[in-house]
Write a structure and sequence with these properties.
alpha/beta, five-stranded mixed β-sheet, three-stranded mixed β-sheet, 13 helices
Length: about 325
């Protein structure tokens, strides 16, 4: 079948690698979208060795029977080329003017494409995310709360934390024009945080971050997922560099609000110039405060106090006067 895509069509971008256990549910959620405009599904098979392609071909018939064009690409190399490569290829072979990203183990709610397209039309230079429902329900509880409960301004002020992008990659929706302005994804393969690197480049180019405050995605937690292959130390290095670039270089001095292991690690990770700007370590732990100083190349004074009380009493504004890192 041939479906000429209409202007402003939506392309669902689906990289696939050995996704047999989840694909039926994932592809059914594409079929169940209530968006009334033109849609296509762009699938790129990144060297799957299971029955993923058989499932995709089965759903191609169902989807095209409902008017959703299905474009399939891929390779049969012995090893996968990585998530960044697969997403870039799926985008390159697609035609829509908007891109809706979907992981092969996740499930979209029926209104996802419709609601995120409405938001993207209002915010053409933004990444549009949404709230999520985690599966299993009790996995990564703190992270899930963070994803779903950040205030609109915190979507930009909390971009330095260990959680990564303030809207998670499988919820992203944006215009093709904006993606082309920022992208493509890094194709370094396994161990590369391609979503975090793209997110940072997006912010560097002045992009916004918007979240649709409805749960539009069932977001699975799987210990064997590709994101688990990225070393914490790799992400830490990128975060510190971005923190220096976007914030610390503009500050004459600053205080590290953690006199424990993480605070000391942050200090050691800073460039020499940034370390010279550190005037104090603060903490709410009396044992740490009693130590009085931290010695690393040069001594630092150590003060203490309850973080929340200090922020309130000093009327400090997040993003201007302080930033969350850990």
């Amino acid at each position: 079948m041939f479906f000429p895509l209409k202007k402003n069509a939506k392309s669902i971008i689906l990289p696939v690698h050995d996704a047999e256990p989840w694909l039926d549910e994932c592809l059914r959620s594409v079929l169940q979208q209530d968006f009334q405009g033109s849609m296509e599904l762009s699938v790129f098979n990144d060297g799957s060795k299971d029955k993923s392609m058989t499932i995709i071909e089965k759903w191609k018939v169902k989807l095209e029977g409902s008017g959703i064009l299905v474009v399939i690409g891929g390779h049969n190399c012995p090893s996968p080329r990585g998530v960044g490569y697969a997403k870039n290829q799926a985008i390159a072979q697609s035609s829509g003017s908007y891109l809706c990203f979907l992981d092969s183990d996740d499930v979209m709610m029926p209104q996802r494409v419709r609601l995120q397209h409405e938001a993207a039309a209002r915010h053409p230079t933004s990444i549009i995310g949404c709230q999520v429902r985690r599966e299993p329900p009790n996995s990564t509880e703190r992270y899930t709360r963070w994803i779903n409960q950040l205030a609109p301004d915190q979507l930009l002020t909390q971009v330095f934390t260990s959680h990564g992008p303030t809207v998670v990659m499988p919820t992203w929706f944006c215009s093709r024009a904006w993606f082309s302005h920022v992208g493509p994804f890094d194709e370094g393969g396994r161990g590369v945080p391609e979503d975090l690197l793209f997110f940072y480049d997006h912010l560097r180019r002045g992009g916004g971050v918007v979240r649709v405050d409805q749960s539009l995605l069932l977001y699975r937690f799987r210990p064997g997922a590709a994101t688990q292959s990225v070393l914490e130390s790799t992400i830490w290095t990128h975060r510190v560099c971005f923190l220096e670039e976007r914030a610390l270089r503009h500050w004459a001095t600053f205080t590290i609000w953690n006199a424990g292991r993480q605070g000391r690690r942050l200090y050691r990770s800073l460039s020499e110039g940034a370390r010279r700007k550190v005037v104090a370590f603060c903490d709410v732990d009396e044992k740490k405060i009693q130590k009085g100083f931290y010695c690393y190349e040069e001594s630092q004074d150590l003060t203490g106090g309850a973080l929340e009380d200090n922020l309130r009493s000093l009327h400090l504004q997040e993003g201007r006067d302080f930033l969350h890192f850990s």
